[in-house]
User: Fold this.
Amino acid sequence: MAQVLLKSGFFAALLALPACADSIAERVAPGGMLVPADRVIVHKSERRMELQRDGRTIANYKVSLGLNPNGHKQREGDFRTPEGSYRLTRRNTRSDFFLSVLVSYPEPTDVALARRNGWSPGGLIMVHGLPNLPKYPHDRYLNTDWTDGCIALSNEDMLDFWLLTGSGTLIEIRP
Assistant:
């Protein structure tokens, strides 16, 4: 897909955008292929996400988390962002947000924890951009935790994330 984007006018237009040009252009290998990340690390306490390739950081982003960000997600409706190792799965271009990528939460250990307590573990944890129909001023989304438990990026960073990750990429969410 990256090769197709490079040969299309869409990718050329992206490279022309000042906000995106440096972050995307530096990740294009000779021959025009994007070099994807093989690991995503979210540092919840720092509100920061790293994309890594072969142990080297290739991108850093500021993130917003769930409304109750401290601690591991335990049940549906707790507004927490999970902690642990997951995978990026389904990609959605028709989300309520500017692009979204599903995280493989809940894993079997998350389900077992919730069941022991008689709860539903919840689900639909995603990495996504800003709402397509915002209810609040733009700065609120960029400077506070506001999701139901997801990991949110600015739209510019979400586009970069989208282009540099794929289905099956490991995402490690740390406290």
Observations:
- Confidence is low (pLDDT under 50) at residues 1-23.
- The first helix runs from residue 2 to 7.
- The first strand starts at residue 39 and ends at 43.
- The radius of gyration is 16 Å.
